[in-house]
Design goal:
382 residues; mainly beta; Immunoglobulin-like; 3 domains; seven-stranded mixed β-sheet; 4 helices
C-alpha cells in the first residue's frame, strides 16, 4: 500500500510538472586540519523506495576515512532509515572507498529524505585553507523489484578552514539585581578532553550567584558531560576557580557548544557600564594525561537596562511565569534567570509571598502604569 501511495504521488507530481528526481546529496562540509568529523550522505527519494545500493567515495589527497580500533573503516547506516540492512566498506586504494548495503529481507530503506549513511573522515594536519573536491561515483540503487538505477557522479566540496581548540564566551547583558547564566563554550574540533581547570575573574559589581544552600551556582552542560563532576570555589578579588574531571576518565561529548554554565548576578546598585571579565589560565587535560594550556579569554559583560517590577525571569514582560519563578524562589529553589530587584515589587525590606500577589496583580493589569499604585515604586521601576 505504501508503494502504491508513493507511485500515485509520483504520478501526480509528474502531471503537475513538479516531479523531483531521486538523488544522493551531501550538505556543506567544513573541517580544520587535524579534525575528525562524521559526514552524512543523504538519500532524497520521493519517487520510489530502494532496498540496496553500492557506490564509491573518492576523497581528495589529505582527507581519509577513519578506521576503528579493529581496523575497520568507520561508516554506518542511519538508524532512522535502515531496517535489517547491512553495510560493507572497503578501501580500494588511491583515496577510493567502496560502500555497499543491502537488506537481508529485501526491505526498503525507510523514509523519502534525509541522511542514509554516515562516514567518518579525517583532515590531515598538513592541509591549508581552501576548498577540496570529493566525488560519489558509480552509484547503483536497487529497487524492491530488483530494478537497478545508475546515477550520475556527485561531486561535493570539503572546505578546509584554519582553526584550533579554544574557549569562547558570548557577550552577556545583566540588569541590576538580575541573576543570569553565562555559557562558557568549548570549541574542540581537533581533540577530546576529559578534565579542565580555569579561573573566572569578574569585575566589581558582578559575582557568581549562590543557591539557597549557599553553594556557588554552576553546572556542566547535559549534552557534553558523562560522569564528570564540577567544583567551584571563590578565590577572592572577584576570582573563582572552576575544576572538572571524569570519574572514569571519559571525554566531554561533542566538538562545540556550551560546556559549563555559571550563574552570575549583578548587584542592585551596579552602575550601567560595559565591563570586562576574563577566563584566566585555562588548562585542559586529554584522556592520556596530556595537558594543554590556552591563552586567557576576555569577554564583555554589559550592566544596564530597565528593571521592570514583576519581571522576575527577565524576559521583558510580566506574566504568570514570573509568579511561578518567584514562588520557586520562596520555597528554596534557585531559578535562573532571576531578578531580585524586580521580584521585590512592593519595595519593602525583603522578598515575600506578598510580592507574589503583587506580581499577579501586575500581570493582570498588563502593564506597570495600570498596576495598583503600591506596586509602582520608583526604586524598582526606574
Amino acid at each position: 500500500m505504501k508503494s502504491l501511495r508513493m507511485m500515485l504521488l509520483a504520478a501526480v507530481l509528474a502531471l503537475t510538472g513538479t516531479a523531483q528526481a531521486d538523488n544522493l546529496a551531501v550538505g556543506s562540509v567544513t573541517m580544520v586540519p587535524g579534525q575528525t568529523k562524521e559526514v552524512a550522505i543523504s538519500l532524497e527519494n520521493p519517487q520510489q523506495a530502494y532496498t540496496a545500493f553500492q557506490l564509491e567515495l573518492v576523497l581528495p589527497e589529505g582527507v581519509t576515512m577513519v578506521r576503528d580500533a579493529q581496523g575497520r573503516l568507520m561508516a554506518r547506516l542511519d538508524d532512522g532509515r535502515k531496517a535489517d540492512h547491512v553495510l560493507n566498506a572497503a578501501d580500494k586504494g588511491g583515496g577510493v572507498c567502496r560502500l555497499m548495503s543491502f537488506s537481508l529481507s529485501n526491505s526498503p530503506f525507510a523514509g523519502t529524505d534525509g541522511p542514509l549513511l554516515h562516514v567518518t573522515l579525517h583532515a590531515d594536519e598538513s592541509l591549508t585553507e581552501g576548498t577540496l573536491t570529493a566525488v560519489i561515483q558509480k552509484q547503483v540503487m536497487t529497487g524492491a523489484g530488483g530494478t537497478q538505477e545508475k546515477w550520475t557522479d556527485l561531486p561535493f566540496a570539503i572546505g578546509i578552514e584554519s582553526g584550533n581548540d579554544h574557549l569562547a564566551v558570548e557577550p552577556l547583558t545583566l540588569v541590576p539585581g538580575q541573576t543570569q547564566e553565562l555559557a562558557i563554550c568549548l570549541e574542540n574540533p581537533l581533540q577530546t578532553y576529559a578534565a579542565f581547570q580555569l579561573e573566572l575573574v569578574l569585575p566589581a559589581g558582578i559575582a557568581v550567584a549562590r543557591g539557597s544552600d549557599g553553594r556557588l551556582m554552576a553546572r556542566l552542560a547535559d549534552g557534553r558531560k558523562a560522569d564528570h563532576v564540577l567544583n567551584v570555589a571563590a578565590k577572592g578579588g572577584g576570582a573563582y576557580r572552576l575544576m572538572s574531571f571524569s570519574l572514569s576518565n571519559a571525554a566531554y561529548g561533542g566538538q562545540e557548544g556550551p560546556l559549563v554554565y555559571v550563574a552570575l548576578e549583578a548587584a542592585d546598585d551596579a552602575p550601567s557600564a560595559e565591563l570586562t571579565a576574563t577566563l584566566r589560565s585555562p588548562v585542559f587535560t586529554q584522556a592520556d594525561g596530556t595537558q594543554v594550556k590556552w591563552a586567557d579569554v576576555s569577554f564583555a559583560i554589559t550592566v544596564g537596562g530597565e528593571v521592570i517590577a514583576g519581571d522576575v525571569n527577565s524576559d521583558g514582560r510580566v506574566d504568570g511565569l514570573d509568579a511561578v519563578t518567584l514562588a520557586r524562589y520562596l520555597i528554596g529553589e534557585d531559578p535562573v534567570p532571576f531578578n531580585a530587584a524586580a521580584a521585590n515589587v512592593n519595595g519593602d525590606d525583603g522578598i515575600s509571598i506578598a510580592d507574589v500577589a503583587g506580581v499577579i496583580e501586575i500581570s493582570r493589569s498588563r502593564n506597570l502604569e495600570m498596576a495598583p499604585s503600591k506596586y509602582r515604586n520608583t526604586e524598582i521601576s526606574k
